[in-house]
Design brief:
Blueprint (H helix, E strand, L loop, with lengths): L8 H12 L2 H8 L3 H15 L4 E4 L2 E4 L1 H21 L13 E6 L1 H18 L4 E5 L6 H5 L5 E4 L9 E8 L1 E6 L10 H6 L1 E5 L20 H8 L5 E6 L2 H10 L2 E6 H4 L8 E4 L8 E7 L7 H18 L3
Parallel strand pairs: 3-4, 3-5, 8-9, 8-10
Antiparallel strand pairs: 1-2, 5-12, 6-12, 7-10, 7-11
C-alpha cells in the first residue's frame, strides 16, 4: 500500500470511532454528518480489509484487527498533534490550572497529602480536583477529561501511558489492647475477625461476595493458596475507616504498609508483620496519550515522581 494514496483523515475517523464505539457519536465528535462518517467507516474497511467494528447486542464492537490498530493510530496522532501545537512554557508559580486526578483512598492517604503540601509551596494557585475510582471510567481518562489516574491497576488499556509510582508491601494493624498482638501467629490470625479494605481499577463498585475469594485481592488470594480463609466482618473502601476500626475494635486490618504507617506514632495501635507471605504490589499513575506532550502535564508527572521519591526515604 502506498501511504501517499491514503486519506490520512481516515485515521482520525478510526481513532474517534474506536473511542466512541458509535458512528453517530463519532460524527458528532468530529462535527460531520452521520452519512459522511458511515462512508468513512466503509472506506476504512476497504483500506484495512477488515470490518473493524461489528454490530453486536452490546453495540458496535471492535474486531481484533481494530484493537491492534488502536494504540498505534493513537500514538501516531498524538505525536502529530504535539508537533503542530505551538511551544508553550508552563510556569507553576503563576499557573491557575486545575488538575483532575482520580485517586484511590490509599493514594490520597499516602501520596497526595504530600503532593498538596508541596503544591502549596511552589504552585499556590494550582487547584487539585480529586476524584474517586467510582466516578471515572477508562473512557474519561482516555479522552483526557481526567488528567491522571493513580491506583493499583490489574490491567490498563494499551493506549494509556503509565508509570510505577512505588512498590509497597503489607502490614497488619491491631489495637494495642488486642491480646493477639503478643502472639501473632497464623493460627491466631485465622481465629480472629478482620477488616477488608480495597478499591482498584475504575467504575462503580457492586459490592463484595465474601465467598468469591478470587475477587478479594492479594491477601485472600495468598491465604487461599495455603488452603486458608479469614473471617471478614467489615468490608470498606476507605483506609482511614479500616484503621479506626482496627484501633477501637478487636479487628485486624491487613493493608499496605504505607497506609498502616499513618498510625505509626499512635501508642493505641500496634503494627505487625503478616504471619504469611504476601507479594508486594505497584501503585501506578496512568494518563491519556492526548496529554503525553502537554507541558503542564509533564511538570505534574515529574512532581509526583519527586514527591514519591521523597516519601520513599522515610519508609
Amino acid at each position: 500500500m502506498n501511504i501517499s494514496k491514503v486519506d490520512l483523515n481516515l485515521l482520525v475517523y478510526l481513532d474517534v470511532l474506536l473511542r466512541e464505539g458509535s458512528v453517530t457519536k463519532a460524527a458528532n465528535q468530529l462535527s460531520i454528518t452521520q452519512p459522511a462518517m458511515s462512508n468513512g467507516l466503509k472506506r476504512l474497511r476497504d483500506l484495512f480489509k477488515d470490518p473493524l467494528l461489528v454490530r453486536t447486542s452490546e453495540g458496535m464492537t471492535p474486531t481484533q484487527r481494530a484493537l491492534e490498530l488502536q494504540p498505534v493510530i493513537r500514538d501516531v496522532l498524538s505525536k502529530l498533534e504535539a508537533s503542530i501545537q505551538p511551544e508553550t512554557e508552563f510556569t507553576p508559580a503563576t499557573s491557575t490550572r486545575t488538575f483532575r486526578i482520580m485517586a484511590s483512598d490509599y493514594a490520597e492517604s499516602t501520596l497526595l497529602l504530600e503532593l498538596v503540601r508541596t503544591l502549596g509551596q511552589i504552585a499556590p494557585n494550582i487547584t487539585l480536583d480529586l476524584i474517586t475510582p467510582s466516578d471515572v471510567t477508562f473512557h474519561d481518562v482516555e479522552q483526557g477529561k481526567v488528567d491522571m489516574a493513580i491506583n493499583r491497576f490489574d490491567e490498563l488499556p494499551l493506549s494509556f501511558h503509565q508509570k510505577v509510582v512505588w512498590y509497597d508491601t503489607f502490614a497488619c494493624v491491631v489495637s494495642s489492647d488486642n491480646p493477639i498482638a503478643k502472639q501473632f501467629t497464623l493460627d491466631n490470625y485465622l481465629k480472629s475477625t478482620h477488616i477488608w479494605v480495597s478499591k482498584t481499577g475504575f467504575g462503580v463498585g457492586v459490592g463484595i461476595d465474601p465467598n468469591e475469594v478470587q475477587k478479594l485481592g492479594w491477601v485472600d488470594s495468598e491465604l487461599n493458596k495455603l488452603g486458608k480463609k479469614r473471617d471478614i466482618r467489615v468490608f470498606t473502601r476507605h483506609y482511614h475507616v479500616a484503621l479506626q476500626l482496627a484501633k477501637t475494635q478487636n479487628l485486624i486490618a491487613t493493608l499496605p504498609r504505607r497506609a498502616a504507617k499513618i498510625f505509626k506514632d499512635d501508642p493505641t495501635v500496634t503494627i505487625l508483620e503478616p504471619p504469611f507471605d504476601i507479594p508486594p504490589f505497584a501503585l501506578k499513575m496512568a494518563w491519556s496519550a492526548l496529554l503525553q506532550h502537554d507541558a503542564g502535564h509533564i511538570w505534574l508527572r515529574r512532581l509526583i515522581g519527586e514527591v514519591a521519591e521523597r516519601l520513599a526515604e522515610n519508609v
